[in-house]
Amino acid sequence: MSSPDTIVQSVQDAARPLATLLQLMRRARSADGDDALGFVMVNESRQLLDYRQAALWRDGPWGRDGPMGRVAALSGLAEADAAAPYVQWLAGVFRSVVAKAAADAPVRVLQSEDLPPLLAQDWPNWLPAQVLWLRLQPPGTQTSGALLLAREQAWSDYELTLATELADAYAHAQSRFAPQRHWRERLGAWLRPGRARRWLLLALLLLVCCPVRLTVLARGEVTPQEPLLVRAPIGGVIDSIAVQPNQQVMAGTPLFSLDQTTLAGQYALASQAREAAMEAYRQSAQLAVTDDRGKLEMAMDRARLDEKVIEADFTGRQLARIHVKAPQAGVVVFSDRGDWQGRAVAVGEKVMTLADPARVELTAFLPVAEAIQVQPGTALRLYPNAAPTESYDAVVSRVAYRAEATEDGVLAYRIQAAFRTGQTMPRLGQMGTARVYGDWVPLIYYALRRPLTAARQWLGW
């Protein structure tokens, strides 16, 4: 029967490898770089598994280690020389085993029969007979490396179990320093597996090639068709506005009046000058009956009278024009009465517009940055701001060839469009957003049109 001391010693002997395993796992997790981690793998693993030689291999598909990987660390050496014969032979072994053991168990005993004949015949020159292969494969990622441990004694089942846990811990720690996969590798991984993914890629390709209608948004406004512009007949200051914005008026309705103070004074002076000239002409006509000199003065007074009559008549006509009336029936369109009262205007300056509310059209301003191919006959649709449930269809009738600055300071092309018949006409002056329909284009072009435009402007294609 075993003594208590013997039992305690047996328990301690059994627990010592587990404690060493935990210590190595901690050392691997706390490594500050892949070189430090490689040193732990090839040198400090000897505390758990007794071996004579160790080598670490890191895969490198399209990464920094080249497409085939490299020998990253060797036991007892600070750095592995890639030109050394031993390192070159190990690289061939690793490549050969990795290519065939991708689906094998992560830990297994490697034998010379697992190698090609050229590599197997050099085995006794470089490695002991018993070689343990540890595949370092982090879960959820591609394989990232392998650890080779070699010695003369055979490996026990218990050591294989410890090696399995150690390989899992090393793989997890090494995944922290694994380089990012290249886009070509990711694309290849996406294209390789299964028929379902290929069908998905085909469906995605057909989707991006699906034709869609190219549309852009522009600011829209309902404007009168063939409006009559009401202009200032003479230069002066607007004294009063007799109508309200958007008021329905009849022909002859007073619209606005100019200040008459200056013209009234000028007309009074011209009238007095005309009366004085007429009196002078009457006196010279009477004198001309008896005096030949009076005939000459009568001719001069007659000319002066005609001049004053013309001045008085012109001033009178100008005074009569200060009261502007509507030449025809319609709706008066202008901004606000307060904006015009007391404002100085020049001859011919537009004050308001007289429009027929039954004859309206759509005016849209297409920004230069959003410009597409628009020509007469292109379809538009107006979405009024004040009526979110309504829309109005229109057809382009005219397109400005040159962009102009809008009220917002944005360069835009002016588009005139006629509303389609058979629908209720929108209210004059209504604002909204106009959707301009262009040609049919692939969906990928529709999605990338703005980024491609910005890239072209930035790169100067």
From TrEMBL:
Keywords tagged on the record: Coiled coil
Keyword Coiled coil in annotation: yes
Domain of life assignment: Bacteria
Signal peptide: none
Coiled coil in keyword set: yes
GO cellular component, one term: cell envelope
Annotated localization: Cell envelope
Protein name, UniProt field: HlyD family efflux transporter periplasmic adaptor subunit
Organism field: Chitinimonas arctica
